[in-house]
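INFO batch 0412 | record 1 of 1 | parsing
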Amino acid sequence: MNETIRVAVVDDHPMFRDGVISSLRADANIQVVGQGASAADALHLAQEHLPDILLLDLTMPGGGLDAARAIAASCPVTKIVILTVSENEDDLLNAIKAGARAYILKGVAGNELARLVRAVYQGEAYIAPKLANRMLIEMTRAPRAENPLDQLTEREHQILELVASGATNREAGAHLHLAEKTVRHYMTNILQKLHVRSRVEAALLAQKAGLGDAR
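INFO prediction complete | emitting tokens
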């Protein structure tokens, strides 16, 4: 059985956004979990839903690039896909540097967009063919904060504190009224933010910071 890909779409043109959502929903393995029209909407959707893929326009209130940077820093588990009319090479390079995994031009057909979403979900990078001569796959990571725990959202702090107290994902979910799968998704995001490989390392880091008495 194919995994369901959870997608959010942010574009300030309602008719275009509706068309994108309709095209994606035609694919049985893609679930649209949210939509918005601004950089603030994009960041909220990313933090609230942690979608697998976030489709983001460049030209929107608040700026698509600023949204991409903020999302790459706060939600590294979410893969950012730029969907834009801009063929400007600087926009392309800035989008890659901001953390985008793909740069797609808005003339793409609906079934092709769904295919590209699946490809990005599986770990591929993509740049529109006509811009491929400027391809620069520069893996960008948010710079480490002096205290990596400062990068966590309030919800992530709650989950990490429970894990540091010895709670399983199921127990943490029950305590916070979240599904176990949702807690696992958050933990993946936490591990990436803290640059650690396991929940044990994350728990040790949290305990050193004085966390671990949540239960």
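INFO post-check: The domain at 148-208 is CATH 1.10.10.10 (Arc Repressor Mutant, subunit A).
INFO record closed
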